[in-house]
Amino acid sequence: MAAVIAVPLSILLGIVSVLYNGTWVDRTIGLVTLSAISLPEFFAGYLLIAYFSVAHFWLPSSATVSDAMPLGQRLIVMLLPCLTLVLAVLGHMMRMTRAALLNVMASPYIETALLKGLPWWRIVWKHALPNALSPIVNVVALNLAYLIVGVVVVEVIFVYPGMGQYLVDHVAKRDVPVVQAAGLVFAAVYILLNIVADMISVLANPRLRHPR
Question: What is the CATH number of the domain that holds 121?
Fold first, then answer.
């Protein structure tokens, strides 16, 4: 759920930041994302609980779900931990998208497209973004791996019954086989996502598919 929100939003914000490079829009997006990066996820989670649950009673502070809950109620309950994870990964992916696009925008073929009179948005979307896809895919894969492996603290804060909470509970019980199995699952997912990111990078960049 956090990845579905964070990945397209970070890429969109990165593109908007490049389109309005140097303006107040770019500076505002940079300031917000830097602030999000600076906040540890547990601190961001407690801030969201204090504002949305304690101060205004808009959302529940606990994300405990069960099989009997309807989908709508489950989504509402999961909203605060989802927002916490989005804040944790959004800034990194957005800034990497912006940096990769700005690096491509300095290429000679982009200047040629500008001299031909192509619209700025079309140059960014059709010419710069495909060539900047490789570093963007890598940073997205790393953050997706973090969303799966690094959710232990967030799940404990919001009492969400996921793998992270399961791991913490069995660490407290000193159940070594369960802890080893959970660590093996986390490591396998992390390695698999990195392999997928490398494969997509090769497919997206023709220079990596052909010998020099």
Answer: 1.10.3720.10
CB atoms within 10 A of CB 43: 12
Nearest CA to 151 out of 112, 127, 114, 182 is that of 182
Query: Would the pLDDT of 207 be above 70?
Result: no
- Which pTM was predicted? 0.78
Domains in the chain, number: 1
Contact by Cβ (8 Å): 86, 33: no
Domain that holds residue 70: 2-209
Question: Who contacts 114 (Cβ-Cβ below 8 Å, separation ≥6)?
Answer: 120, 123
Query: Phi, psi (5° rounding) for residue 150?
Result: -95, 20
What is the band of 182 on the pLDDT scale with cuts at 50, 70, 90?
confident
Q: Tell which residue, 11, 75, 83, has the closest CA to residue 41.
A: 83
Residue-level pLDDT at 209: 66
